[in-house]
Amino acid sequence: MSKNTRIMPVIALRGMNVLPGMMIHFDVGRKITVAAIEEALLSDQTVFIVAQQDDMVELPSREDLYDVGTICIVKQLVRLPEEQMRVMVTGIERATLEEMLDEPHYLKAVVEVQEDTDREHLSLIEEEAMLRQLKELMNIYAAANGKSSIAFLRKIADIKNVDKMIDEIAGNIAISLEDKQAVLNELNLEDRFNCLATILTKEIEVIRIKKEFQAKVKEEVDKNQKEYLLREQLKVIRQELGESDVVSEADKYMEALNKLKASKAIKDKIKEEIARFRTISSSSAESAVSRGYIETLLSLPWDKKSKDSNDIKHAEDVLNEDHYGLKKVKERVLEFLAVRALTSKGESPIICLVGPPGTGKTSIARSVARALNKKYVRICLGGIRDEAEIRGHRKTYVGAMPGRLVTGLRQAGVKNPLILLDEIDKVSSDYKGDTSSALLEVLDSEQNSHFVDHYVELPMDLSEVLFIATANSTQTIPRPLLDRMEIIEVSSYTENEKYHIAKEHLIPKTKQKNGLKETDLSISDRALEQIIHGYTREAGVRTLERRLGEICRKSARELLEKQTKRAGKSVQPKQVKVTTKNLEQYLGKVKYTYTELNEQDEIGIVRGLAWTSVGGDTLEIEVNVMPGKGEFKLTGQLGDVMKESAMAGISYIRSVSEQKGIDKEFFAEHDIHIHIPEGAVPKDGPSAGITMATAMLSAITNKKVRRDVAMTGEITLRGRVLPVGGLKEKILAAKAAKIKTVLVPKKNEKDIEEIEAEIKSGLEIQYVEQMEQVLEYALC
């Protein structure tokens, strides 16, 4: 063992340490600490004091203690109640903990006294520089902190030893245990100086920043106090003027702001506007603009939401109660609800319902809102040309106002309503901007979480809004806008569907609208079927509702006219009954008749199937062949597409004329005339190619066409049959005309499979790929 190595009792301090030159007193209570002090008093009164790394350890081991501590002399001992002691010690010199010895009653260790051997390398000038630097830092620290006593500053001013000054400062300033231990750990004087200088510099900077924070807080408190005093003075002034009951508009706005559910950024912006409003004269024109803007911001549902219903059974019941059929639409809504119930926040889809007028697209949206327990807002986009209708006007314009979407949210009062964008295919553009382009951001789920209205000028979250759009056709919707929506086709109703809709919805609704009780009017089932078949021709049910309204109005008049008074008592007339026998009294003569089967097979007459905006229809295509100069005529107001289909058909026939036994000079010596009746009605579309080709070939070869066959499909120059659309409406038209066989392109087979069995029943549907197959089925 070297001369610098000693064995002595160890005191482990919690939360503090002792530096050389320090005189400190502390209370001890642990048995191992009391025993160590008693052992020191029995010998030379010296102990090794070292700090614990973890205060929670009751019986510390070597790993729980720091490596460097201080050898101290016990100067005084005072025994306290409950086996406690108050000890006063003085630090003598640094020492490192080398090894813990086994001792059952107290901590005992081998320590090595440390001497600063590198001090001799420092010159007197360097030591003087260190002294001055420490004194300067200490003066700055004392001035910033304001807690160091003048006596302590005088004490360190008289110290001429750098080592002693470092330990004196480190032991007396308010720094953490880790910082004090860092100074104690440095065994080299220069390193110890650098460590303490760094700590002092850091503490000075912390104090400076702390004072800046305090100044800011004080400034804010003073500002609020000043505002409070000014408001109190304003109240007194108003009382003197007799206006004590009048509360300023700005104060009302501040009260509303405090109740508003919104983010801090939104509230700060509104608060700024209110503060600005206070400074504006009430007679100024700008005052009205600022007032309107603040009221708009305060009325918007920034973070206010309604609770959606997750009851799928209830939603299904509501949809079935309000609408008959529409299977795909109902399935999509229930899928959305199921996802939302599982994820608690499903992505709100952008649904676009596309179908003919009167098929219930708008009423579907209202039913969806009721099923999901959402607020319902309808925005009609038909004919909108100004982009500001969507994005809002700039506040710089006179009469500026927010766009329709923000107005819709304001009307709903929540941020997650159902917004119906009605007639989205009828928006247009002019020099004021492109309205459809403005809708791109609104209907993009990746962008609409931060939609900025030009008037509001603050980002609004539209991601939780359930958008449902309606359109009659996708042809006029711009492709980028169409790409952002999920298209659901709402096709034409069958006569059976119209019957159920009228029975379950329209008749009760129309009776109530016209003041009739349930028992006042009855319409027989046969009469209802005749109304649907003979008095309406449409894809939807609007005309049917008008016809039922006409019956209800005439019934109401009839009930009142028959009412008589006998002996001062009113006699209620009997129920009005509408049957097939008296239906003409209410609706007049039958308005529509369907072109049914011809009486016999004929040459050059073929039944084609067409799609119209009000459903399907059948067209009789007639072809006459006459001696002439090879002219080719098309009449019946045919569009360019149908004309080209006819040209393709005649080219195909000429290419197979040899196979069909047609004379080579036939086309040069004969004129061909194609006509489609109802010449005043424009006709166009890519689905009459095979029909016109069959009619022409029948007329040229003098072969009859089966009267019970109807067809649809486009033809190519090589006789291939191409797929077409609108098959449901076309199949309905064929069924109404009592057609037995329908020829459909082979590639449309999947579309036919999706059509309800009820529509296809009674029809033989044949799939064709080549013109030869068409002729095989059609020609006798």
Structural summary, described in words:
It is found in: Cytoplasm. It catalyses: Hydrolysis of proteins in presence of ATP. One of its GO terms (cellular component) is cytoplasm. InterPro entries: AAA+_ATPase (IPR003593), ATPase_AAA_core (IPR003959), Lon_bac (IPR027543), Lon_bac/euk-typ (IPR004815), Lon_lid (IPR054594), Lon_proteolytic (IPR008269), Lon_Prtase (IPR027065), Lon_prtase_N (IPR003111). Its EC number is 3.4.21.53. There is one protein chain. The radius of gyration is 48 Å and the shape is elongated. It folds into five domains: about 5-115, LON domain-like (Archaeosine Trna-guanine Transglycosylase, Chain: A, domain 4), CATH 2.30.130; about 250-300; about 310-320 and about 330-490, Rossmann fold (3-Layer(aba) Sandwich), CATH 3.40.50.300; about 495-560 and about 570-585, Helicase, Ruva Protein, domain 3 (Orthogonal Bundle), CATH 1.10.8.60; about 600-780, Ribosomal Protein S5, domain 2. The protein has a seven-stranded mixed sheet with strand order 23-24-22-21-26-29-30. It is of the alpha/beta class and about 775 residues long. It contains 27 helices and 30 strands. Residues about 245 have low confidence and may be disordered. Helix content is about 45%, strand content about 20%. A hairpin with a 2-residue loop joins β17 (about 565) and β18.
